Predict the 3D structure of the following.
Amino acid sequence: MELSEKLKLYLVLETEYLQMSLSEFLENVIKGGVTAVQLRNKSQNLDEKLKYAYVIREITAKHNALFIVNDSIDIAVKSCADGVHIGINDGDAALIRQNYKNIITGYSCNNMEDADTANKYADYAGIGPYTKTYTKKDHRHILGAEGICKINNALNIPAVAIGGININNALDVLKAGTKGLAVSSFLCKSKSPYDDAKRLLDIINERV
């Protein structure tokens, strides 16, 4: 399966919002349609995050879903994750590309300079934020669908749109032309994660 297919429904995981155990949640969202899981948990230290990473790796591997670690190449390597996702303040994309050739690299894009970096050193991009989001306090300039479309058109790698995406605005976001949607709080806070993931995937598949 091509990387772009694996990015179709991309979960940005913040475990503090979960309404059930991590294992139960992951089983539900992946069976509902999530194709990639990124462990973010910004507030956790490395040891705590690594414990979660091992659980996520086991379950994503069982279901053939991608496992991406936010920010930390060390955790990605130790947990045998498929990839690492970084932004302008999180690491050196060129260095990661040089030293970890077998690891998928994702890069956050908010402007054309970011897009240029992503084209040079990343395998996929996360473009956003689409709108205001409460799971990421330090988010950058809000792009809207038009801004996401502009950056997406400048990329020669697959991309997901991110930032405040939910069932009500998913269709509008998809008009920007990205390969997939990255969703955080809508799924993490859900009491019916299987159903909500399936609803999102249905919207994505209808648009494709």
Notes: Residues 52 and 186 are 20 Å apart (CA to CA). The longest helix spans residues 46-62. The chain has one domain: 3-207.
